[in-house]
Amino acid sequence: MTTSEKVVDLLNQAALIPTDEKLAVLKQVQELIINKDPSLLDNFLDELIAFQTDKSIEVRKFVIGFIEEACKRDNELLLRLIANLNMLLKDDSVNVAAPWTEETVRQCLFLYLSLLPLNHRLVHELASVYTEAIADIKRSVLRAIEQPIRGMGMNSPELLLLVENCPKGAETLVTRCLHILTDKVPPSPELVERVRDLYHKRVPDVRFLIPVINGLEKNEVIQALPKLIKLNPIVVKEVFNRLLGTQHSEGSSTVSPLTPGDLLIALHNIDSTKCDMKSIIKATNLCFGEKNVYTSEVLAVVMQQLMEQSPLPILLMRTVIQSLTMYPRLGGFVMNILSRLIVKQVWKYPKVWEGFVKCCQRTKPQSFSVLLQLPPAQLTSVFERCPEMREPLLQHVHSFTPHQQAHIPASIMAVLEADKKPEPKPVEPDETPPPSSQPEPAEEPMEESQPEPSDLQEPEKDVEADVTGPEAGSSSDDVE
């Protein structure tokens, strides 16, 4: 019996026997072909591939290993195998045409991918197959390429060439490859350069930049932020994980182009014409969610730098309030910020001014010393928004020593006492005032008077609508 006849006999047996025995028979086939006549694999390739539909994982793995070993010995066999698989994967009728089923196609795809380490050039064939494959096969490719691509590594010339050329229709495949390559290690300069060129010259999809974002320059990242933070929240979270250094978990050292403070400041400075305020607020909330990264020291530096900008960022006071809520010990620092904002005439920035008033309301009585630094017109504005603050502030001033009270301008005292109206002294019905009496006591201000009903009303809610606390999921109404 010839070797070919023995192989036919063994393959027929393998098709009919249980899994345990099947593996032993296939090993005999491998020994005959590899050791006696490698050319036979070309003749029986289709029969061997058919075992990829076997229920046994061990059998499927064995067949893949068998074909890999044969392809190492015969490059022409590899090319023929690839050609066959290309035709199979591009055929949209394989879902129903016997004997090939969708499962058969998937198994052949795994076989195809297992050959990538043997010949990196196959990645271009894979991209070509991907662009023409049906949707189900595309999804299978994206799920199955992790190990082969990771094995090739980001320094593979063929992978770099794939990124550089990025065939039309293969953008998702290339992006998936980039994520796999940079999942645990920082991107190489060569990979960054090719992605940068692809983004600027051919495919301006900001998602290409995410896997290599830590390899970009600081100004490049800042320019991309308006587009990045408008992506799916899960994607934005991944971007921030990479930038804040919480992405890599295997001890690899990665240096972000932005410090945590740089990132938060950059978010405040995004042009509202390029990105909606709701997305910006959600992005800042992500930063505040990383308490291990955004320490009180980091936030103090951020507030200091934002306060020194001109014009003042719209979200400045929102960040001040969130920082104070997260770290109450920053109270003294925040009072200093508020005092500095008075010097910068914060009332000229309506949104920031509303936040300023809200912050003073939340931090009373600590903020009383700040309120007394306001000009009379602006202090009046505070009381118009928060009338319930007038009386406590007046009582605070009354608690001063005479020397301290002497330093309070008369114009400020006039604002504080503006609602203190004299009340007439009640006249007893059985008494007649003597004609020579002094002027009615009612004409003199009483030592204590009750506030008018308007003083007891609740503070207006428009302030709350514009500047909120650090609650997650704030909507665009918070700043509009």
Automatic annotation (TrEMBL):
- Give the Symplekin C-terminal domain ranges: 205-386
In this chain, the stretch annotated as Disordered covers: 420-480
Source domain of life is Eukaryota
- Biased composition regions of type Acidic residues, renumbered to the chain: 441-457
Listed GO CC annotations: mRNA cleavage and polyadenylation specificity factor complex
| Protein's name in the database | Symplekin C-terminal domain-containing protein
